[in-house]
Write a structure and sequence with these properties.
The chain is of the alpha/beta class and about 290 residues long. Helices cover about 40% and strands about 20% of the residues. The longest helix has 22 residues. About 40% of the residues are buried.
Length: about 290
């Protein structure tokens, strides 16, 4: 097995478990950005530990507001431009949700990068902990069982497919909203109730739970006004989300926007998925994302 030097810079507990897994395979691993969570992991000189790294892995998502690396467990802050400035050109860079301007900076320095969220195997496997986390939130946030609850899932992508299957196993009455007629056909074939997204207003008043996976405003004020007061709303979509949160708050509705669920509910499994994806990329040869 080729011994690789990794730098894990920031991220949540997925990144920490990833580092531990890589160490167990006898790779050289440095971590940066966990000093607040793990006092024994004091940050070393970043320029020194970055300079000879073969593979650099940052968080999912890569950035927080203002262009700083996502480092929730660190007292330090680090701007992405500063970090790119000290990266070696021969390193391979992995992160999630790499913004266009960051990609351009990486390309200007001729750094090979891979957005983990662009990898299909990562997205498919990541849907499992995301869906399980959604089920946990539904159980915790509703006064009734999932069994016999009427649940509407908006979007029939990877998470929508996995979540619909799990909820059906619990005995829920599963409805799935989609825009494409091909998706609506598959929804029907798989035993769920199909709803075209343009017809949502006809059905939402009967739902006990609505889960959104579509990253655009689909649950508008007009839709919210038609919901039953005890309907639980769960948004799994990335920013900007799909719910008019301000109006939902005015109505006093129970609503959660659950971002990065895999890292919160199953960080060890999520780390294994990230590692598998990185291994695949390195084994198949690396190209720019």
């Amino acid at each position: 097995m080729q011994r690789i030097k990794y730098l894990i810079a920031g991220g949540d507990m997925r990144s920490f478990y990833l580092a531990e897994s890589l160490k167990n395979e006898y790779h050289m691993v440095e971590i940066f950005g966990f000093d607040k969570k793990l006092p024994k992991c004091k940050n070393k000189n970043l320029t020194q530990i970055t300079g000879d790294a073969d593979v650099i892995v940052c968080g999912i998502p890569l950035l927080t507001a203002g262009g700083f690396l996502n480092m929730p467990f660190s007292e330090e802050s680090l701007h992405v431009s500063t970090f790119i400035g000290i990266m070696p050109e021969n390193a391979v860079f992995f992160a999630g949700k790499i913004e266009k301007d960051v990609r351009e900076k990486l390309e200007d320095k001729n750094i090979t990068y891979i957005d983990l969220l662009d990898r299909e195997e990562m997205a498919v496997l990541n849907a499992i902990p995301a869906a399980e986390g959604a089920v946990e939130l539904i159980i915790r946030s509703t006064p009734r069982t999932i069994h016999n609850s009427r649940i509407l899932i908006l979007g029939y992508g990877r998470i929508g497919k996995v979540l619909a299957n799990i909820l059906k196993g619990f005995g829920a009455d599963v409805w799935v909203g989609a825009r494409k007629y091909s998706d609506l056909s598959w929804i029907e074939v798989n035993g769920y109730r199909p709803v075209h997204t343009r017809n949502l207003e006809r059905y939402v008043s009967d739902m006990n739970v609505i889960v959104n996976t579509i990253p655009s405003r689909i649950i508008t004020a007009d839709i919210l006004n038609k919901l039953r007061p005890d309907c639980y709303l769960l948004d799994l979509a990335s920013r900007p989300g799909g719910i008019d949160f301000e109006h939902a708050e005015k109505l006093g509705m129970k609503v959660d926007w659950a971002l990065s669920l895999p890292g919160k509910v199953a960080p060890l499994t999520a780390a294994d998925i990230i590692k598998k994806t990185i291994d695949n990329v390195l084994q198949e040869g690396v190209g720019k994302g």
